[in-house]
Amino acid sequence: MSNEGKRVKVHYTGTLDDGTTFDSSLDRGEPIEFTCMAGQMIPGFDAAVKDLAIGETKTVRIPAAEAYGEYDEGLVQRVPANQIPNANQLPVGQTVYMMGPGGQPFPVIVREVTDDTVALDLNHELAGKDLTFEITLVEAE
Questions:
Q1: How far is Cα 119 from Cα 60, in angstroms, rounded to an integer?
Q2: For residue range 21-60, what is the model confidence (pLDDT) as tens digits?
Q3: What Å distances lie between residue 115 and 16, 57, 88, CA to CA?
Q4: What is this structure's pTM?
Q5: What is the spatial distance between Cα 1 and Cα 66, in angstroms, rounded to a whole number?
């Protein structure tokens, strides 16, 4: 029986190839809720939940292309340091939030800070990584 189009609740744990857990609904104590196959989740996750039965647990490995995409060097932008307040204080290697055109914040990773430029990485932090999820379907309606 397909869960496509249904509101589902799942518990999951996501790990990287080295076994590091990057996210888990179990740690938050609350399942994630979404409409299955409506594009609210990464494609590989949606596909894994589509045919799960309530109470069933499945482990899936999702290649980067079906997760957050391949890493794109073109998404690393160099911005003149004088256009960013306190550029010299930005934490290299960490995520900061910039304001988008509509005033919405979006995350970027600070890759490099020099006297002249700041390199900001707009790739998702999991871009280019294959992901493994253990998913349990809790509810489907």
A1: 34
A2: 999 999 999 999 999 999 999 999 999 999 999 999 999 9
A3: 35, 51, 7
A4: 0.80
A5: 23
Strands in the chain per DSSP E: 7-15, 21-24, 32-35, 57-62, 76-80, 95-99, 105-113, 117-121, 131-140
In tens, the pLDDT along 80-136 reads: 999 988 898 999 999 999 887 888 898 999 999 999 999 999 999 999 999 999 999
What are phi and psi for residue 31, nearest 5 degrees? Answer: -70, 160
Question: Does the CA dihedral 41-21-105-70 come out positive or negative?
Answer: negative
How far apart are the C-alpha atoms of 111 and 87, rounded to whole Å?
Answer: 12
Residue at token pair 């004088």: 82
pLDDT score, position 78: 95
The burial class, CB within 10 Å (0-12 / 13-18 / 19+), for 3 is buried
- Give the span between the Cα atoms of 6 and 60, in whole angstroms: 20
Instruction: Determine the Cα–Cα distance for residues 82 and 134; give it in Å rounded to an integer.
Output: 45
